[in-house]
Design a protein that fits this description.
By secondary structure, the chain is an alpha+beta fold. Helices cover 33% and strands 25% of the residues. Strand 2 and strand 3 form a beta hairpin. It starts with 8 loop residues before the first helix and ends in an 18-residue tail after the last strand.
Length: 183
């Protein structure tokens, strides 16, 4: 007969301690990654406090250029004054400019494009960090005047710094969806 082996309880205790330590460190690593401080990004939002009067001229059929831009005290006083090739003039508000009125050919997409290239674009939703487009202006002097006015409008804008987590969505429906509808 072969002698019986004596099993010591010490190796099994060592194994239990090693396994327990590994389990504890894994769990603590998971919880520490979950509870760590999220990273934030800061974004500066601008609210324009001065208004703008933009004068545009139709230089060719359906091609407009900005001839003058002048700041005014209130955003509500913003206007677009359009001079057309046929001699007609039209004045409309900032709210009207934001709408592309399909029933009125005088408020066409071509005018909206030139307005977005100039300072009026800031009032219509373009970021203040993007520069004005030199090609939107009829003359170099109109562009030079606009760059000075742009500086004034940016300096007087009300600034708000917003902090949000890096991995957050930007509002309702900001995440990606895998659902599709329709046939």
């Amino acid at each position: 007969m072969t002698p019986l082996k004596k099993f010591s309880s010490i190796p099994s205790i060592k194994n239990s301690i090693v396994i327990g330590a590994l389990a504890f460190s894994s769990v603590s690593l998971i919880f520490s990654s979950c509870s760590s401080e999220p990273e934030y990004t800061e974004e500066t939002k601008y609210e324009l406090t001065q208004g703008l009067i933009t004068e545009v001229e139709e230089v060719e059929k359906e091609l407009f250029k900005i001839t003058n831009e002048t700041s005014v005290d209130k955003v509500e006083d913003s206007r677009i004054i359009a001079a057309y090739l046929d001699g007609q003039r039209d004045t409309f508000t900032l709210e009207e400019a934001k709408l592309v009125d399909a029933d009125n050919p005088r408020r066409s997409n071509s005018m909206r494009g030139v307005l977005m290239g100039g300072m009026m674009g800031y009032y219509m939703g373009r970021s203040l960090s993007s520069p004005i487009n030199k090609g939107a202006y009829k003359t170099p002097s109109a562009y030079q005047k606009a760059t000075k006015t742009t500086s004034t409008i940016k300096q007087t804008a009300k600034r708000t710094t917003v902090r949000r987590p890096v991995n957050s969505s930007k509002g309702f429906g900001g995440g990606k969806s895998t659902r599709s509808f329709g046939g």
